[in-house]
Amino acid sequence: MNTKKLIIGxxxxxxxxxxxxxxxxxxxxxxAGKYKMVSVGISAPYIFLPELSKMASASLxxxxxxxxxxxxxxxxxEVSSDxxxxxxxxxxxxxxxxxxxxxxxxDFINKKIKSALRTKMNPVLCVGELERxxxxxxxxxxxxxxxxxxxxxPKASLKNIVIAYEPVWAISSTENHxxxxxxxxxxxxxxxxxVLSDMYGTPVHVPVLYGGSVxxxxxxxxxxxxxxxxxLVGRSSLTPKKFVSIISIAHAINxxx
Length: 257
Ligand code: PGA
Known about the structure:
This protein is α/β, with parallel strands linked by helices.
């Protein structure tokens, strides 16, 4: 049986206006409906979520980019999982490297994941090493991220979780970024599955997405050779034509497999 590939656009702090956000979303939605063999979402800034969620459909869901670790109360500037759930936002990115760079630790991210799961939201947990130089230390780095971010999460909750492997050195906004290869991803996916199986004592299936400078030229390699369960797409998701090409590639792969 085919499992649909999951393609999520991470708009980060873009675009500049609500009008542009609505136009981009509707251009993607118009095309996404043609590709049934793929699940597609857009992670948009909080301020656009109410309007975009009115436009969401079976072929295009809306996701948050972050969530508070707390339930309610004196936390200026934060948005809780209850608030998002009350607006029917079911998905959120958690632990993106750009938030880790602002000081989010694995422990803090662990609280956010628990917060999301409390209201049955589906977190996309981002992991990934900052650099790749000599040696295999990056495997241990990602292992620690997964063990600490998922500490105390019961096995039954894993069905709601997706992991996105985003090596920071391959993200388009990283200075002097380099392209990761499908082999880089494949190695890490196998390793992540081993880390999870060791943690939970039995083989567990958590979808693993690839993210980092994905475009319409390299998407197929990560999905086919790399075996990615989907893609987290930053810059290329801001151009509907490019993002739709990536969606169509993922659709064709599932259709032909
Ligand atoms: P990018 O961003 O595709 O622009 O590299 C990916 C991400 O940071 O989620």
